[in-house]
Amino acid sequence: xxxxxxxxxxxxxxxxxxxxxxxxxxxxxxxxxxxxxxxxxxxxxxxxxxxxxxxxxxxxxxxxxxxxxxx
Length: 71
What we know:
It is a single chain. By secondary structure, the chain is of the alpha+beta class. The chain is about 45% helix and about 20% strand. It contains three helices and two strands, in the order αββαα.
């Protein structure tokens, strides 16, 4: 639906900004599966830290503002 499309758009935007490539993205009703290719110069830990905020907290804030009925 509309929420899944917004999640996909947010993740694609974050990937474009960071020059990452999404290989798989599956938005479920309560979670997201993501297969992401990053540059060899970047560590997986760096993606899981502050730079992933758009995938985690950042996307959550945007979605909750747009859809206040989300739990």
